Amino acid sequence: MTEVNLPLIIGASAIDSINPCAFGVLIFLLSYLTQKFKDKKLILKNGLIYIFGVFITYIIAGILLLKIIQSLGQLTVWVYIGAGILILLAGLVEIKDYFFYGKGFSLQIFPGEAARIKKYVNKVGAKSSTAFFLGVFVALVELPCTGAVYLAILTLMSFTGLTTNYMVFLLIYNIIFVLPLIIILYFVYRGSSTDKFREWEMRNKKYMRLAVGILLVALGIWTISRVI
Predict the structure, then answer these.
(1) Angle CA(134)–CA(204)–CA(108) in degrees, nearest 5?
(2) Are residues 59 and 171 in contact, defined by beta-carbon separation less than 8 angstroms?
(3) How far is residue 214's CA from residue 146's CA, in Å, rounded to a whole number?
(4) What is residue 1's predicted lDDT score, i.e. its pLDDT?
(5) Are 135 and 51 in contact (CB under 8 A)?
(6) Within 100-193, where are the H helices?
(7) At CA 163, angle to CA 160 and CA 168, rounded to 5?
(8) Which residue among 27, 68, 115, 161 sits deepest, i.e. has the most Cβ atoms within 10 Å of its Cβ?
(9) Contact between residue 125 and residue 115 where contact means Cβ atoms under 8 Å apart
């Protein structure tokens, strides 16, 4: 396989979409909204707007990062080698968390930013704008936790550049990435407890990290092999 294709995009985004970081913030937000508001339509609206904020931020970030990586890669192949090594190391950290979760370094939202997220969630009310800007903020600060797979795909795309096909691939990737969030929102809207989703996340997060880790190791090796 010499270039990014649709099966790779679907597979990578599906694995990336089960990242515990993305789940955790939405569950926390919905838990807060269901306690504060009884209007299910308001909860659904704010949840969808929050998810849209995450989606649009990832799209814009993807386009900008792809162009930056491509520009730097034209200067020296060491940019691609460095990116590949970084992706590979991120994968090993995720695999480590399968065996030793919570011990040593992990890919996660920085503690200070996690506290800010909780603070901003408490400000989400009836106004749609607050839910949107929360989605934008969360998408930016959770990149250290969720962005490794995205970085790998963008690095591989940068060998060719932002073609029309790749723009479509970015849209597909991010639609799949937010799809589990939409599913969680739907079930909460229909009356499911956020506690059930939190419990499911806690039981399965090490398996999620293992899947992400294996994917990252493969993508890291592939990236390095493209330039050596």
Answers:
(1) 45
(2) yes
(3) 14
(4) 46
(5) yes
(6) 111-121, 128-141, 143-158, 164-189
(7) 125
(8) 27
(9) no
Tell me the pTM: 0.87
**Token reading at 119:** 């603070």
Tokens matching residue 160: 């060719």
Residues of the chain predicted below pLDDT 70: 1-2, 37, 110-111, 113-114, 123-127
Residue 91: enclosing H or E segment and its boundaries?
helix 78-99
Task: Give the type of residue at 16.
Answer: D
- Between CA 52 and CA 70 the distance in angstroms is 27
Q: Is 187 exposed, middle or buried (CB count within 10 Å of its CB: 0-12, 13-18, 19+)?
A: middle
Contacts of residue 211, defined as CB under 8 A and 6 or more positions apart, other chains included, come to 15, 18
- pLDDT tens digit sequence for 61-120: 999 999 999 898 887 889 899 999 999 999 999 999 888 877 777 777 766 766 777 777
